[in-house]
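Quiz preparation item.
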């Protein structure tokens, strides 16, 4: 087995290879003066089983096109099987045609990955689990929530409580709550499909008076979802707010916004490299690969 750490996930790819004690083939990557990507594999891959690690966080389009180039080329160069580990799966949030005429980007990307030659696909906390049904190849979603739960279990939380800031996947809060040995709940979030503005409401009343709350989500993009949750928690008398997410997309001043709202700690995985990527996905990937591939 050979691990190829793609340009957008070099560190994570190297960590995974080290944990698995597998060979690494590095890629030479340059950007042409006009912004286009050049990529070259530095060693032979003929007949090999290759695992490529390339996230598609910002800049999404560049990272995606590089991923497609690498998949296609590995196949052209004779790799026997290519598994694409895409820690953050870009464009997944546009998973339906919510308004007439909209593109359904998630399905188009899935199609492109398959056409480029991926034999297997692994991602983390995919925005909507139903997207896995659109893959014709084997597609696996792993959750980083146990790692996030373990991370926050090292803090001395007073009467912890876990909150998911929307109704999409309360299961994530449940996993973290189980590790912290506490209750959990979630909010209902409504998005204006035209302006993108969001409103959040309590789903079912919960008590967080003087409690430390861990808010967990798949993605922090603008941070507005988390800010709404913090406001609701403050109104209900919560003490300290800890925020954990899998994918730190961090658009438009998200961190400042969340810190200003009152979060004590903000942590994420290295699905995308960022200043808050304090939790590595590498052990989870390595243990999955050891068992499954
Ligand atoms: C989608 O609803 C996701 O679960 C996240 O809650 C969302 O992507 C976060 O976006 P933002 O940080 O821009 O509010």
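Solution:
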């Amino acid at each position: 087995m050979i691990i190829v750490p793609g340009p957008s996930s070099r560190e994570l790819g190297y960590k995974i290879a080290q944990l698995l004690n597998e060979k690494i083939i590095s890629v030479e990557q340059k950007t042409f003066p006009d912004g286009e990507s050049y990529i070259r594999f530095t060693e032979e891959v003929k007949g090999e089983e290759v695992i490529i690690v390339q996230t598609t966080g910002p800049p999404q389009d560049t990272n995606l096109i590089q991923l497609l180039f690498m998949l296609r080329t590995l196949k052209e160069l004779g790799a026997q099987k290519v598994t694409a580990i895409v820690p953050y799966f870009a464009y997944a949030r546009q998973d339906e045609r919510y308004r007439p005429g909209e593109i359904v980007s998630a399905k188009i990307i899935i199609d492109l990955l398959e056409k480029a030659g991926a034999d297997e696909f692994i991602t983390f906390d995919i925005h909507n689990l139903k997207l896995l049904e659109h893959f014709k190849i084997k597609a696996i979603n792993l959750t980083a929530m146990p790692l996030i739960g373990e991370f926050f279990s090292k803090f001395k939380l007073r009467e912890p409580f876990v909150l998911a800031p929307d109704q999409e996947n309360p299961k994530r809060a449940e996993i973290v709550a189980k590790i912290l040995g506490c209750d959990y709940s979630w909010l209902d979030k409504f998005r204006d499909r035209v302006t993108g503005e969001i409103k959040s409401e309590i789903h079912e009343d919960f008590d967080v008076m003087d409690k430390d709350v861990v808010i967990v989500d798949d993605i922090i993009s603008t941070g507005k979802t988390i800010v709404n949750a913090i406001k609701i928690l403050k109104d209900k008398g919560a003490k300290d707010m800890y925020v954990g997410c899998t994918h730190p997309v961090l658009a438009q001043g998200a961190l400042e916004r969340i810190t200003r709202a009152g979060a004590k700690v903000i942590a994420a995985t290295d699905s995308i490299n960022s200043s808050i990527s304090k939790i590595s996905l590498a052990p989870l990937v390595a243990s999955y690969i050891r068992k499954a591939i």
